[in-house]
Structure prediction request, 282 residues.
Amino acid sequence: MLNIFDTIKEIAFKIERAIQTEDLGYSDSENSSGEDQLKLDVQSDLIIEKAFANVTSVKAIVSEEKEGILELHPNGEYTVCYDPLDGSSLVDVNLSVGSIFGIYKGELKGENLVASAYIVYGPRVELVYVERDMRPLLYGGNENRFRKLGEIVLNKKGNLNASGGTQKNWTTYHKKFIDSLFQEGYRLRYSGGMVPDLHQILLKGGGLFSYPATTDRPDGKLRQLFEVIPFALIYEQAGGEAINDKGERLLELVPSHPHDTSPCFFGSVYEIDALKEAYGIK
Ligand code: P6P
Prediction:
């Protein structure tokens, strides 16, 4: 596992350089979710694929930018599922973006996630890494090296509210719940980039990130294997909770297809409790 984490550290600085130098235009291809691919999406995906091609413990990789599973090392133990550059369309307006990694052992489902990591490309490059039974660790990147900055622990209650999805397509009870948090004094913190939005809540003491089921996306938008489940481990290990709209732990999801999505809620205990109440799933 250590060489996977070391590889993720190397990837961080290569993608950071690509963000600084690559053309921000669109490629002439789509990803498997039918979304137009930026040249940066393709470039970041290639950087990660090449990096793990040298790591013999990695049996296969699954990328948001690719259709299926890419076998790398038949005797490898782990499958790495990743979103190479989440929120990449924010690069051309100079907002933070990120890479997300889920490291699985065995069948690709929540209970087989053994570790996860994400990289934030912002004013600084930062990295968070977690395994089961440990607090998430925050690292700061500088001159191609990472320095451990400390553990991440969520407060029981926060005051940030990152409410995703098109509001006109929310259910009435979701809208009522989100509005109730604002009435309690929560502050809206939503950039449209899952990685910086979840990172901010983790580091600023807590709150709620929600991407619910909506009329246009009844199964949510965020992908289970390489977005939702990896962040669920980070939030739970930080002392928070991560559930879907039925109150099920996101770490218990069993996707039937690598690109399955799920409604998702990540947050401090108080906010998730309040959501369960509002959704009638207590
Ligand atoms: P919306 C970026 O495209 C992304 O996949 C996540 O990073 C982000 O949380 C979400 O979509 C934003 O979606 O519908 O709120 O613009």
In short: The chain has a mean pLDDT of 95. The longest helix spans residues 2-21. The chain has two domains: 2-151, 160-279.
